[in-house]
Amino acid sequence: MLSLLHIENIAVIEQADLEFENGLTILTGETGAGKSIIIDSIGAILGQRAGKGFIRSSASKGFVSAVFSNISDELSQWLHENQLDGEEKDSIHIQRQISADGKSVCRVNMKPVSVSVLKQIGPYLMNIHGQHDGQRLLDETCHIDFLDCFAGLQDDLHVYQPQYQRLLALKRQINELDKSEQERLQRLDMLRFHVQEIEEAALIDGEEEQLTERKAFFDNVGRLVQTLEQAFQALDGEEDYVTGACDLLNDAANRLGSLADVSSEFSELSERAEEVKYLALDLRNAVSQIRSRTDFSVEERTAVEERLDLIYRLKLKYGPSISDILAYAQAARTELDTLESADGTREALLQEYKELLSQARENARVISAKRRESARILEQRIIAELSDLDMTKVRFAVRMETGSKLNPKGFDGVSFLISVNPGEPLQSISKVASGGELSRIMLAMKNVLTEQESVDTLIFDEIDTGVSGRAAQKIAHKLAQIGTKKQTLCVTHLPQIAAMGAHHMLITKSVHGERTYTKVQIMTDEQRVEEIARMISGDQITDTSRKNARELLQASQI
């Protein structure tokens, strides 16, 4: 059960600390005072959406903290498996901080977790019934979920639904393989041609660069031969009538060496001349070697140009580089293998589909049988609950339509039918239920369904919408009855419901210095009289309204 709730800088609440007890706790206050903010804060602890608009204006962040005690064995086991145990094994402490940028920092038993973890924990702790749940009751597509919850079919559906999704995936794969045989054969011919063409080319990654460099040599061979010859002659000389640089440097080194006995300076110059001479000789030899390689055949040039032309044409068809062409070839081989083995693959998929379909249909039949049995029990339970809520003439029925084709829920479609007045036929709830009747139907549904749940805390946010008089009194007694089984929190505007609470919290709003503040007050018996009298007569509280309030409170003790 929810024991403690701490709120900071959430909407109009600057700070509030609330202690909760067992039984029915009533939350009342003027419209806009902040009752829904308390419910929303609890929702935030359970992982519900809480954006930056959730934070009090001018605050940089909001904070909610809650302690739940006497938690279920199932939750204790879940916390242990996820390494989120607390020091006290029978309680859990949850915190959530929401920043102005919308980001959240969450903790469970002081250990950081994600919002998704809070969503997983929430169903173990609390069930919140808000006004939107009434809309779900009007939506017939949700009725099967109500019935499945009552029938306890969660485990059965966890087995069936993955089977159904796999059947859909297999069907898509089989349909893809069942495309036109002509298209498959055409694709096979094209891919075989592409692979053969690329394989015959025997491409080597990087060869295009080498070929391009060789072609550049061919394109410039005339200039290369002439320039290399001129460079060689400049270094080596032209036979007997022109002396080359190498001979001249050799002569300079000898002449300088002859003066070595005159001064050490000439000896150093001679050594430097020798070094330059040898560098010139190395250069001459390198030029000579390159010059010897300038010979080539016309056939070689033609082969290089044809090879580059082949690579160019393949690049136009298959990719901007040789590596891309080779990658395309590998992808084409893979697709070829798939298409060539399509028949075998189709047979394997079809066999898996048939076997899985048989299993899914059997599971769906079991689910249908359980639904049908539970539907009759649910009808009786809802009628009994509605009778307690002053709808004694009501007829309620669960209509099941079982087909032969599987759907995400099995074979079935489910809708709830109701007749609220004698002589009227059973019709869809959305067609015949008024606002007050819808509230009572939803309360009856919740009371029946929560018996199947392990949560210890229920919250009813304005369950009294559209209800007054005798019906309101019946709802009040039903809520009190629920409060004897589970901790129950109820936001209400009706004095009849407020008087039934074992505990009563008043939420008030005030303005100080152009800022709005919300205060939560645990009410004494006399304060409850004043609050319920206000709910009866408005701001002008009279002795009569106080008397009526006391009578309501006294009646609730009987």
* Main sheet strand line-up: 2-1-4-5-6-7
Structural class: alpha+beta
Give the overall pLDDT as a whole number.
86
Tally of helical segments: 20
What would you call the shape?
elongated
Helical content (DSSP H or I, runs of 4+): 55-70%
> Mind describing the biggest β-sheet?
6 strands, antiparallel
**What is the CA-atom radius of gyration, in angstroms?**
45 Å
Strand residue percentage: 15-25%
Distance between the termini: 26 Å
Total beta strands: 17
Q: Brief overview, please?
A:
The chain has 558 residues and is α+β, with helices and mostly antiparallel strands. Helix content is 57%, strand content 19%. The chain contains 20 helices and 17 strands.
Q: How is this structure best described in words?
A:
The protein is α+β, with helices and mostly antiparallel strands and 558 residues long. The chain has a domain at 189-339. It has 20 helices and 17 strands. It has helices spanning 35-45, 73-81, 115-125, 131-138, 143-151, 154-177, 181-201, 207-219, 221-236, 245-257, 264-292, 298-318, 322-340, 342-388, 429-432, 435-450, 469-483, 495-499, 525-537, 543-556, and strands at residues 2-10, 13-19, 24-28, 61-69, 91-99, 104-108, 111-113, 126-129, 237-238, 242-243, 395-407, 410-419, 427-428, 457-461, 487-491, 503-512, 515-522. The strands form 4 sheets. The chain has a 6-stranded antiparallel beta sheet, covered by helices on one side. Helix 8 (207-219) crosses helix 12 and helix 16 (435-450) packs parallel to helix 17 (469-483). The chain is elongated, with a radius of gyration of 45 Å. The model has no long low-confidence stretch (mean pLDDT 86).
